[in-house]
Amino acid sequence: MHTTISVAYAPPIATVTIAGELDPVSRGRLAWRLIDLNSLDCTTVRLDLGAVTHIDAACLRLIDDARRRVAGRGAMFELTAVSSYVGLVATLAGFHALSAPGRTGPVSKAADACSGGRMSGTAVPDQAAAS
User: What is 11-126's CATH superfamily?
Assistant: First the structure.
């Protein structure tokens, strides 16, 4: 299946929208797009996974690593949409911060190390997604 990964940057917000399957075929492109976020001087990163139809554990780890990097540098990470498939797989794999729309703010290194990065940060329901 075709995978689309788009990044829009309107300072100070970067928005990443992904559609299709996140699997070994698309993993490299996903990794580079997420790494590219580090070069943008944004205070908020928004990620839309609402149109993702498949995701493997390695791609979940890449996204969670990016979430932790963003929050670790003091920026806000917002998960704006999550498909039901991504939500289920993220929950089962223990990536609770990626299982539903919400925000992750700055994360303390001690809390992140204790949780292995899987449950760090504070998830707050996104009011815009609930409307």
Answer: STAS domain (3.30.750.24)
Q: How confident is the model over 77-88, as pLDDT tens digits?
A: 999 999 999 999
The CB-side HSE value for 126 (13 A sphere, CA atoms) comes to 21
- Please choose, from the candidates 106, 131, 104, 25, the residue with its C-alpha nearest in 3D space to the C-alpha of residue 5: 25
CB-based contacts of 3, cutoff 8 Å, min separation 6: 18, 19, 20, 21, 22, 25, 26, 29
How many other CB atoms are there within 10 angstroms of residue 126's CB atom? Answer: 17
Which amino acid is present at 16? V
Rounded to whole angstroms, the Cα distance separating 81 from 46 reads: 9
